[in-house]
Amino acid sequence: RPDTVTAGKLEIIKKAGAGRISINPQTVHNKTLETIGRKHTYEEFETAFFLAREMGFNNINCDLIAGLPNESSEEFSQSVDKILSLSPENITVHTLYLKRASSLKKQGFSAEGNYDIEKMVNYAQTKLPQNGFNPYYLYKQKATLGNLENVGFAKENFECIYNIDTMSDESTVFALGAGAVSKIVLGDRI
Question: 20 to 30 A from 147, CA-CA: which of 12, 38, 51, 68?
């Protein structure tokens, strides 16, 4: 999250040898960030992004979410365009998924009636390849808005191997930390 990024943390991450980091704006619209309970502004995201660049990170992912509350397709397009102007190496386009315990769900937000979701996703799927980003992985969550997928886009040679391995179900992935879940592949069993 952009509100947690500091020079000290980035220095530790860099020294540990991380080859890719995510700094996720979700949207470029501060009113939406406030609505969804994010603790940062778009300007704070930009500050974190540029700090990471200054510290030598050359593979940054940015997540955007299509279908956020009260955002029009035009506003989502603005988010895509603004993030493209920063030239990250990866952009993941998520379709809104309301988790049971999310603050939006508790506030009674309903994703019903958001008919622009396909327009939003289509815009990203057209605009990103036009700017050198190729789709390289996708995954589906059970209750996404419009029953659509989440798609990771990357510039050539910046695909995230972890994402590919995780989605392929062909590689063992060991997880460490609170709430982490490992996936062990044993022949045709997971």
Answer: 38
Q: For the residues of 93-131, what is the DSSP string, one character each?
A: EEEPB--TT-HHHHTT---TT-TTHHHHHHHHHHHHHHT
Contact 25, 62 (CB under 8 A): yes
d(CA 163, CA 183): 13
Q: Which two structure tokens, joined as six digits, stand for 175?
A: 């997880």
Q: How far apart are CA 2 and CA 90, in angstroms?
A: 16
Q: Tell which residue, 74, 65, 137, 124, has the closest CA to residue 96.
A: 65
Query: Rounded to an integer, what distance in angstroms lies between the CA atom of residue 125 and that of residue 130?
Result: 9
Choice between 168 and 54, residue whose per-residue pLDDT is larger: 54
The count of C-alpha atoms lying within 13 angstroms of the C-alpha of 145, restricted to the half-sphere facing its C-beta, is 24
Output the six-digit token pair for 96.
Answer: 């809104």
